[in-house]
Every structure is written in C-alpha cells, then in structure tokens.
Amino acid sequence: PTVIHRRDYMPPPYRIETVDLHFDLDPHRTVVRNTMRIVRRDGVPADTPLELLGEGLQLEAVTLDGVAAEASDADGRLRVAAGRASFELTVTTHCDPAANSSLMGLYVSNGNFFTQCEAEGFRKITYFLDRPDVMATYTVTLAADKEAYPVLLSNGNLVESGPLPDGRHYAKWVDPFAKPSYLFALVAGKLVALEETIQIADGTPKLLQVWVEPQDLPKTRHAMDSLIASIRWDERRYGLPLDLDRFMIVAVGDFNMGAMENKGLNIFNTKYVLADQQTATDTDFANVEAVVGHEYFHNWTGNRVTCRDWFQLSLKEGLTVFRDQEFSADMAAGEGDAAQAASAVAVKRIEDVRMLRQTQFAEDAGPMAHPVRPESYAEINNFYTVTVYEKGAEVVRMYQTLFGRDGFRRGMDLYFQRHDGQAVTCDDFRQAMADANGADLAQFERWYSQAGTPRVAVETAYDAAAGRYRLTLRQHYAEDRRSDTPADPLLIPFAVGLLDAAGRDLPLRLNDEPESAAATTRVLALTGAEQTFEFVGLPIDGATPTPSLLRHFSAPVIVDYEYDDAALAFLLAHDSDAFNRWEAGQRLATRALLEMAQTLSAGGQARLSETVVDAFGKVLADDTLAPAFREQALTLPSETFLAEQMIEADPGAVHAARTQMRGRLAEAHAALWQRIYEAHRTDGPYRPTAVDAGRRALRNLALGYLAELPDAAAATLAETQYREADNMTDRFSALGALARIGGTAAQDALQDFYRRFEHEPLVIDKWFALQAMQPDGAARTIDTVRRLFTHPAFNLKNPNRARSLIFSFCAGNPAAFHAADASGYAFWAEQVLALDALNPQVAARLARVLERWRKYVPTLRDGMEAALQRVMAGARSRDVREVVGKALG
Ligand code: B3K
Ligand code: ZN
Predict the structure, then answer these.
(1) For 876, phi and psi rounded to 5 degrees?
(2) Which atom of ligand 1 is nearest the CA belonging to 261?
(3) What is the DSSP letter of 49?
(4) 853: which strand partners?
(5) What is the pLDDT of residues 424-442, one digit of tens each?
(6) Residue 625, SS3 per DSSP
(7) Could you tell me the Gene Ontology terms of the biological process aspect for this record (predicted)?
(8) What pTM, to 2 d.p., does this model score?
(9) CATH number at residue 537
(10) Cβ-count burial 520-539 (b if 16+ within 10 Å, e if not)
C-alpha cells in the first residue's frame, strides 16, 4: 500500500475560502451540489491543476465560473484545469447512503441520515481538498421529504427553513467559523431534542440541544447536565467560552467510535449520550460525562485551532484527552471535603494509568509502535491510537507538571493568542508552552518523535550519619524496542517523596538549595541518561527512608526499583501520595501473580505469599480510606496487563494464578468482605456521583470476591441483589456474580435480564459482553459465543453489537480466546474477514488483537500466525492490510 510520510508535507496549491453545499437527501440517491470559492495560493504556477479528492462518487456536472467545464475523475482525483487565480467551481455528484456500511461519509442508520468525516470521510460526500489545512466557511442547504425527515441539522446557525413542492422541505445553515472539512456534519430524520437555554459568563444566551430518537428522550438529562458542566468548566479553568449561538449533540446507534466533535453539531454513539438509572451503570454515567466533555473541549482544542496534517493528530487529541481527564477529576472532586477530593482525583488518575499501562505500553512494545506524532501511515484511521490519545495526554500533562497549573494556563493563552483560526503543529504548541514560561523545551520534542516506553532504573543510597540520601536515575528503552525512531534521553519530570520509619513524609531539599526550598514531594527534572540527585538535611542517624517514586505517575515511564515485599506493604499502608499507595499494592500483587503464573506455567503448584494476604487485609479493614480508593486498591491487575509482564505471555497460567489469588483473598478475609458488603449500601435515591458510585463499586467488588467462595451464601446475596436492585450498576454486578457461580440460577438470571431489557440495545450489548467474557467452564465460551452469533439480536453491521460479542471475547477474555486448540483464532480470522467487507475501520480494530502474537508462549504462536496469514490472504481493505502486514512483518 502507499505509505504517507510526515516529511513529505506540502501546503496545498489552492485555498478553498467558502463552500456552499446543497443536499437533496434520498437514501439511495442523494444529490450533492458543491459550490466553492477557490483561490490559487501566492507563488503557485498558473498551470498547476486543481486536484480534488473523491471516493465512491458519481459525477454529474462541473462548472467553472458558471460555465460547464472539462473535468475527469482518475483514481479518486478530479482534475480541473482552472488556469485562473480565483474562481468559483461547482461540482454536482450523487451517492448511495443506504448502501454505505463503512459508516464514513454520509450513511443511513435506523432510517435517519448521519455523517462522519474525520479523518477522510468528506471525500465520500463531495470532491474536495479533503485535508485539515484547508479551512473554509460553510453554508449548507438540506432538502428532504418532510414526513420522513422532519429534522434537518448542520453546523452553525439555522438561518432559513421552509416548505418545498412535493411534500419536501428545506433548512439552511451557516457556520460563521472557518473549518476543515473533517468537521462538517449533517443529520436528518425523525428526532426529538431535550433543550435548554443557558447564559454563559458574559451574559449571552446559548441554546443547547440533545437530539435522540423519540423513545430515548427520557435518557438525555445526564448528557445535558454534562454539557452544561463542560461549558462552565472550560470558562472557569481556561477562560474559553462557547462561541456559537447554539450547540447540538445528536445520538446515533450505528457509529464507529465514541463521538465526533463536528463544529456545533457533535455526533455521538448512543452509548455516550443515553443514560438512566435503570439501564446505565455508574461507569456509563461517568463515560457520558467524560465524552461529552471531550467533544465539547475540542471546540477550542481541535476546531478553533486545528491540525496542519494528520501526523499532528495528538495536537488536538492528546490535549483534549488531558482536558477531559482534568474535567472528570474536578467533577469527582467537587463533591466532598479536601481529603475526599484528593482521593477522588487519585482514583481518576489510577483509572487512567491502569488503562494507559495495559493498552498503550503494549502498543508501544508491538509492531504498531509509533511516536505520539507518527512518521508515516498507510491508513490514517489506524492511527487513532492509545499512543496518540493517551500517551499524548501524558505528554501534555507533563507541561503542567513542569510549569504548574498557572504556567500551563499561560501556555494555553499564548497558544490561542497566536493560533486561533489556524491549522498548526505539535511544535507550535510546545513553542507556546516554552515561550509563555521562559523555558527551553527543545529536548522535550523527543516525547513527540521517539516511540517506545522509557524505563527509569533507580538506585538509592542513604548516609545516615550525614543525613544525606542519594537517588540515581538512569533512563533507557527496552533492548527489544520495536521502532527505529531515536532513543535519546528525554526530559522526564520525576516526582519523589521519602517516608520515615513512621510513614511520614520527610521534607526534601537538594544539596544546593536553601532550607526554605524543602517540600515533601519534589519533581526532579531528569534530562541526562544518568543523573544523581542528593537530598540533604535529613535527620541524622535516622532509619533508612523508603522512597516513593514517580508520585501521581508524573511521567509515562516504567520504574525499575528493587522494592522488597515489606517496603511495598509499608507504602501501601502509609504513602501520602494516594496514587503511589495504590501502586505499591499493585506491584506487590503483580509480583506475586507473576511468580504464581510462572510456577503454574511450568506445571508446578503455586502458593500466595502471606505478606500479600496480610497487606490486602489491612486495606480491607481500613475504614478511613474512601470506598472508591479501596475498590481500586483491592482490584488486582488485569489478566491482559499481567500477561504483558511475562517474558512469554501465557494467558491460561495468568488466569489460573489470578483466580487462585482471588480465591485465597476471598477465603482469608471472608468476614471482612462480608462486613464491607453490609456496610456499603447506598441510602436514598440513586445518584451517579463519584462518592455513591465508589460505595457501589466497593460493595460489588466484595460481592465478586464472596462469589469465589465454595459455599452458597454468595449466590443468595447475588440473587437477592439482582432482584431488588433499583439501578443497573447493582443489577449488572449481581448478574456478573451469578454468571461466575454458574448453574441454573445464572441461566435464569441471564434469561430474565434479556427479557427485561429486550428493547434497550445498549443493555443487550452488556448481555452479550458478559457472556463472551465468562471463563471456560462446564461449557466452553467459544461455543457460547458461536451460539450467540446466531442469536436474532446479533447484528454484525452494528459496531456496538459486534464489539459486545466479538471484541469482548477476543480482547476481553484472554484465557478462553487463547485456547490451545486455536479455536479462538479461527473465530477471530472469520470475523475480521467478515467485517473487512462491511466496515474496514471496525475490522482493523479487531485485527489488532493478534498483533502481539510474537509475545506469546511458543505453543500458541503457530495458531496465531496461521490465522494472521489467513486474514492477510483474504483482506481487501487498506485498514486491515496495514495492521496485519505490520504484525507479520
Ligand atoms: N475526533 C474523533 C475521532 C475520529 C476517529 C476517526 N477514525 C473523536 C474524538 O477523538 O473526539
Ligand atoms: Zn478527541
């Protein structure tokens, strides 16, 4: 396939200044008339042809300044010999939205029209310079049958609407802001809206709407509240106001990803809009808030200032993920006192880091490894990755760690002052941060250009007689890093603390600093390959302090330090940095689990160390800890994360070790789990707040542990909870516990659940996912999955449904998926190929499940390689071919 390189960037020869689009909407033959005001850029030779990109379009006519013009489409490029410096070009085409199963461009979902243009979908709607550095103002007229499509929406403001002959009607929209084509959107159909008018800080009124299908209207309140909270937060924290008179969110059931930030008309997967007590879990509520925030925040970071080219994607995505993380943290912290707030912030950080380490670190160690700002791609849709998003957000977070919140804000202000209305690069953002803070960030550029997860090896030395503590930090990349990008030393903000024997923080002062500089957490700037920092003025002849390293996860690195179990148990009990308290427990559990998995993998009998059992017992018994934090501390590292830590991943052994450890923790602390279960009922009406959600999470975690016990008590608890639950979190957790226990109670509950929620697609997704994620038991999960595949409610064309069954099994159930007989791999290959023909983007995501095949024990590798070969031989899309080609390469 053709590979596109960052170094080949060239500005476009022509500018498109205005776009006037006219749509005659029809599911099978939509006619699009596109009139553009085009200007040749200064210095471009007059004979340079204009080449507009198009994909799958039927060309009807082209006129140049009102006169029919010669134009031809070769290989998806419409060449127009304009020969003048400034002109008006009208291109008329038609397309077939109902036949569009890729869900890119214009498509039909449940009888309504939607668009998705990022990254390169606009070219499926009309011929265009479909690249983000071409910014134009759009006027859009939509015409359609009035009865079938009563609502007609596009970006910006509604300026005109009215009837047309033959039962049709039209609406005209004007977006006053210049934008790249990937932010264009239209929606047409039978929809209703929850509406609210608010005033922003300067007093201007704004109309907010959440558009959904009529039956979903009662599930829109939370999305609306989240939108209002997002608007307020962006004004307060960054001084960034909503710039349009109206802001719309629209929900659609068929959508490739989470949501899309189209200017003034955000289009969302229903999963991230609809929520009510009966059908959405606490996690769903939190996700709606986060995604509504994310898309709203793009209005400034992405839309007002956009990307020059797609290699700069992290400019908007890393920054906007960072913003949504901070928003969610503030929202969770807003409810309680200072201690509760700090704990809520730590819990949010823990969730984000868990996900980063499980998915991004693995990506960065595999064949798709790429820098935050990639150097090349075959299919840009394959680069909407956890590296660009989540590692990108960590890179942005490091500016804030280095300069503080105020310094970060100064950088943001300068960024908007310089670049509002422009399409820019990651370097421009870094320069604004540097200039606003009088800093030199040249070295920091490497975070954007070097792939792989850096490791920091730590050595410590304590001179008790002198009260000095030396910390030597050495940074490097793993030897087997799969990337040819440079491996030069990075600027790593490394936050540390030291605990005395009683677990209290020691004041820390570097040897060249005045006494007043002492603080209990110090952010060390590691810039060299190896550097030593010396803390002085510690108590003379004190006990050896315990280091708390990389507090709050101050950089996306792996810390290598030889803690013994006692030190980890001590940190878990005492560290003032809540993130590192959690981290100590995870390290302790990870080490124990990996030892057990190795033993089991070699055919031996594993035992869990009593230090670990006791350390977890202390957390269980510590009622001073916030429930949400306790739940995180008591949740073991995931099987996927653990397998990634092995030299050769053995998912079966990991699953066995983790199950054994859960069983041992359940049995050793049965009374405590029982007590936690009883003590954490939530009183009063259901509220999806962080505090209440934390109580439910801890209680349901306890139920899960109790379900590991051989007696029947947990089954009774779970059955009662299932029946009496007044919210989806408790009902679904109880269903999960019952499913794990198995037997007829599980079958009955699963059936009841299906009947209860038959008409709630998002809940039926959960029903499929839960079953796909059960470990092999009396029945093999692959058989259940194949049976569910033929269930009348299954539909491969709906991405949420495909993800709920297929992805849940292939990516969310490692032990069953990696069965020794390769049955999982055969299923995977079939499904990738089936999806490849329907929806390449979704297919490519599924294809990525096997990209780490070389990491696994030899007995599994052959089966994976064969499945990959089979897909390579049959796949047609650029998307899947790029992924599988790299995996096999
Ligand atoms: N910007 C979109 C992602 C588009 C993905 C295209 N394959 C959603 C987001 O990050 O907010
Ligand atoms: Zn985004």
Answers:
(1) -110, -30
(2) 11
(3) P
(4) none
(5) 999 999 999 999 999 999 9
(6) coil
(7) proteolysis
(8) 0.99
(9) 2.60.40.1840
(10) bbbbbebeeeebebbbbbbe
